[in-house]
Amino acid sequence: MRCEWFRNIARSSGSSACIGIYRIVRGGAARAVSCSRYRNTSSSEAIFWREGRKTDELDMGIAISYYREFCPPPALAEYLLCFWIQRIHPSSEFTQRVLPDCCVDVLLIDGVPMVIGPWTEPFDANLPPGTNILGARCHPGLAPSLLGAPASELLNLSASLCDLWGSDGTAEFMRIPHEATVAAQISAMETALIVRIAKAGPIDNAVRAGIEWIARHPHGHVEELSQQIGLSSRQIQRRFTTAVGYGPKLFQSVLRFQRLLNLAGTAALKGNLAQLAADADYADQAHMAREVQRFSGKTPSGLLPSSQSTLRLSSLI
């Protein structure tokens, strides 16, 4: 599947940041070749390299993409995992494999406000030359309160934010691209989302408790969850589908997959697939291989060396 918008990238915490630059190499792969670190006193940022593919004929040595991530202010931290930006070199298209992560994002793609729903399958996102994206990623299960729409209606879809909120509701977002700097654009998006939160619907605290329980009990069953939060299995399925986009068992699988990606980034475990499978709470290495194929379309050895968890800032993993 190909899409003309983009959502992904992994992260870390701390006050330093790293700019990851992709450089085209023979065979169409994109490799990280340089990294600069700097301090930002107003927010934490993280930038990671991602696997990409050459989509047109370019000379070697062209840096084509970088990504930066910013922690949200306290007023938005309950709803948002992070803000992020993605920029593509003006001379090159960039193709990114995007993986399921339980999240919903609100984006400005070249100034156009969009909302990107939760995905259950991988896809390739084609980013045209010169693409600029500013995004806000919601914590799993909290997007419907902010958006005013069930996550299930956005499953494996992108939609215009104007279709959800109308022209009046997106007026502040339409002004963001006119800000002169990235910092000013992020500040303007923060303000627009804080205004939106004042109109937000109630958070489903039962589902939020269920999400946290699943994170703590990766082998837990829906029947156990039912006892813990006082809802029937049918009610849990319905309310998870509304809040997350799909039911608790699939959420458990995607969360385990993201935990695997996070663990794969630690130096001590690189290359030890059996240990990774055990530590990520898979039944065995074969189980891990099936789930990696399901959510990435690749084998573990083909995916794990080049991928990072998009929930790395989350306490869920």
Description:
This protein is α+β, with helices and mostly antiparallel strands. The protein folds into two domains: 196 residues, no CATH class; 102 residues, Arc Repressor Mutant, subunit A (Orthogonal Bundle). 33% of the residues lie in helices and 22% in strands. The chain is built from eleven helices and twelve strands. The strands form three sheets. Strands 5-6-11-8-9-12 form a six-stranded antiparallel β-sheet. The chain has a four-stranded mixed β-sheet with strand order 1-10-7-4, with no helix packed on it. Strands 2-3 form a two-stranded antiparallel ribbon. A hairpin with a 2-residue loop joins strand 8 and strand 9. Helix 5 packs across helix 8. It starts with a strand and ends in a 14-residue tail after the last helix. The N terminus is likely disordered.
* Total number of strands: 12
What is the molecular shape? globular
Main sheet overview: 6 strands, antiparallel
Average pLDDT metric: 82
Order of helices and strands: EEEEEEEEEEEHEHHHHHHHHHH
Indicate the radius of gyration in whole angstroms: 19 Å
Summarize the amount of helix as a percent range. Answer: 25-40%
| Total discrete domains | 2
Structural class: alpha+beta
DSSP helical segment count: 11
Distance between the ends: 28 Å
Low-confidence stretches: 1-61
> How large a portion of the residues is in β-strands, by DSSP E?
15-25%
User: Strand order of the main beta sheet, please?
Assistant: 5-6-11-8-9-12
